[in-house]
Amino acid sequence: MAAKAAIVSRESIKPSSPTPHHLRDFKLSLLDGMSPSCYVPIVLFYSASDVTSFGTDFSVISDKLKKSLSDILTLYYPFCGRMKKNSLVECNDAGVPYSEAKVPFKLSDFLQNLQIIQIKELLPFHPYHFETDQIEDIGNMGIQVTEFSCGGIALGLCFMHRIADAATSFSFLNAWGAKARGVGNIVAPQMEAASLFPPQDFGI
């Protein structure tokens, strides 16, 4: 199963409301600043029955995903900013790269004949193979929604490791899913690690 994903569209999703000026400079904690410059990949699979319970048309589902993503990014504003140096994120609402793709086979066939190398076809970009000076252009996060021929989808995400650990990544996914389902009163995450572990300049 060596067919490549065909990219249908690419765009940048920005937060539905601008980040307040006093939150524009987001300082990373000492520990986050020392994390490697790589992305953490996550791929979630949804069967055709899962998808139809959310909407019968892929374009409708896509619109829901993009609208809810835009809304939730107002709470996770560092995700759509750009890294400046090792310990600062400029929360300039530059947006999150969002692509849609199609593959010419069923989700069940893909999972039954799973080859790890094929997983990269479901991600917005390679999480490890990039030049360090490309990070500002790539952004702190990327998303790709891939539609299978059976109607199932894969949601592939890459999180900048310095911005999101496992807990933060899954907190974001839960909040995004809740927003997409129409759940209100989603609590903003606490992003205060820098106050506990202040960043330091080691001159390297």
Write a structural description.
The chain is α+β, with helices and mostly antiparallel strands. It has a single domain (6-13, 25-181), classed as 2-Layer Sandwich (Chloramphenicol Acetyltransferase), CATH 3.30.559.10. It is 28% helix and 23% strand. The chain is built from eight helices and eight strands; from the N terminus they run E-E-H-E-H-H-E-E-E-H-H-H-E-E-H-H. It has helices at residues 30-33, 48-52, 58-72, 107-112, 116-119, 135-138, 166-180, 193-196, and strands at residues 6-13, 25-27, 39-46, 82-84, 88-90, 96-102, 141-147, 153-160. The protein has a five-stranded mixed β-sheet with strand order 1-6-7-8-3. The protein has a three-stranded antiparallel β-sheet with strand order 2-5-4. A hairpin with a 5-residue loop joins strand 7 (141-147) and strand 8. Helix 3 (58-72) crosses helix 7. The longest helix is centred in the N-terminal third of the chain and has 15 residues, at 58-72.
